[in-house]
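Question thread 4412

I'm putting together a teaching handout and wanted feedback from people who do this every day. The idea is simple: show students a protein as raw sequence, then show them the structure tokens that encode its fold, then repeat with a second protein so they can compare. Below is the first pair exactly as I plan to print it.
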Amino acid sequence: MSREPALLFLLEGLAKAGYRFVTVTPETHRRVIERSAGRTAGNLRDVFGWNLPFEQALLPPRLRDALDRSGLVSRE
């Protein structure tokens, strides 16, 4: 699976999972991230909406693979 099909698969998987997120202002995002310092994600919204670090096991394997192949995630 190349990058573009992987990204499409990821977006379709998020839609099927019922993922919804309303984009906030950069300042709101900054404040949320600041309050979340040291916290890891507990759900899809934390991962894809707030960009919190997450354990691999949080995502279903197919979504995790699509995210890896899309190039939108980095490992620490």
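The second pair follows. I'd like the answer to focus on this one:
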Amino acid sequence: MTILSKEELGALQDSFSRLLNDHCTETHVRQWMADRKGYDDALWRSISDMGLTGLLVEEKHGGIDAGLTAVEAIMEQAGAALLGAPLMTSAVMSVAALRASGDEAAMARLLPDIASGNSIATMLITSPEGDWTENTIGISGQKNGDQWKLNGRAGFVLHGRNADVWITVANTENGVGLFEVAAGATGTQCTALPAFDHTMVMDEIELNDVSAQLIGTEGAGWHYVHTAIDSGLVALAGEQAGGADKILDITVEYAKIRHQFGRPIGSFQAIKHMAAELKLEVESAISAARDAAEQADAESDEASSSRYLAAFACADAYVRTAKDAVQMHGGIAFTWEHPAHLYLRRSRANQQLFGSSDYYREQYLTALGG
């Protein structure tokens, strides 16, 4: 792993922030919300050229291998800008699953194009009624000779319609397997799902006798998926912390210019107290997300507990900050034209993306031995 110094990490964040400030403004985000794709190809190419799609990919496959600390830092900026591109599902979760599999042939075949941004990967994990656990896999795999065929449905697939490769989880006779499926192959159907967060691209995918290639060892698939979800939780925590920080900044600036009774509303004690409490929430969320990434990269004994702490703390902090930001803005934040509700929608959707806050509180206590 290539450990980036504080200066290098800060420079990477600054460069990404400038890119998003120019090419992922609120105007852009609203345009992409109306587009079935949900993001811009030119921006994705710029993100890839910066090396951000290869942050977890080993150098021998064309990546940087900078670890989750770098991923978390980048996701803070992505969350602040409400970026809808498939960074988390392609550059983080799919890469983590492939690396966990130890399948050198699959990694050599898939990772170089993912690292370069020429290929987008996503994961088909749970059924349409599922909850991101091993018990709710909705796809089964059957082997005929040397050929694998997959049948079933997967729900809540991030960027299924935009992906080139579907990394698919399926039940087999010998346990859970992980498979490579070419997106749009014969026998596949991709249906767009409505999302509370209009910046989120989510699909349901149906497979009918679709040809697939086994990745890693049959029966070990859920271990690979668990690793992918763990990495996704750290990336998501960074996105949530960045989004919470940004909407708080927007709200504080508004409180300085919005006048009532002849004075800025930010001068009222009630607003000051709310802002101060939210600042504590946001700073705590940022600390939790960064600590989770650092503990994961260090492979410390506290990695699991830190990750689960970040999973519920960052989710809850984002929801509270976005909700209170709407209240502090007053009636204007309830209008479609104001960005506050976009952050509220993102916070609510992210809070449920890989499981509820209560679920991860339980996992946190279990990791602590409680």
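Top answer:
Good format. For the second protein you could add a caption like this: The chain has eleven helices and nine strands. The beta strands are 121-124, 139-144, 147-158, 165-172, 175-182, 188-192, 202-219, 259-260, 263-264.
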